[in-house]
Amino acid sequence: MYAKLKKLSERPDAFSIYTANTLWTDPHLAEQMLQFHLSQDTALASRPITAINRVVNWIDQTVGLDGISVCDLGCGPGLYTNRFAEHGAVVHGLDFSPTSIGYARKHALAKSRQVTYQIADYLKDPLPGQQDLVTLIYCDLCPLSPVQRETLLAKIRQALKPGGRFILDVSSIKAFETVREGVSFERNLMNGFWSADDYFGFQHTFRYEDEAVSLDHFTIIEKDRSWDVYNWLKHFSPEEIHRELTQAGFGKIEFTEGFGVDPSDDTTFGVIASA
Ligand SMILES: C[S@@+](CC[C@H](N)C(=O)[O-])C[C@H]1O[C@@H](n2cnc3c(N)ncnc32)[C@H](O)[C@@H]1O
Question: What is the DSSP-derived secondary structure letter of residue 172?
Answer without folding.
Answer: B
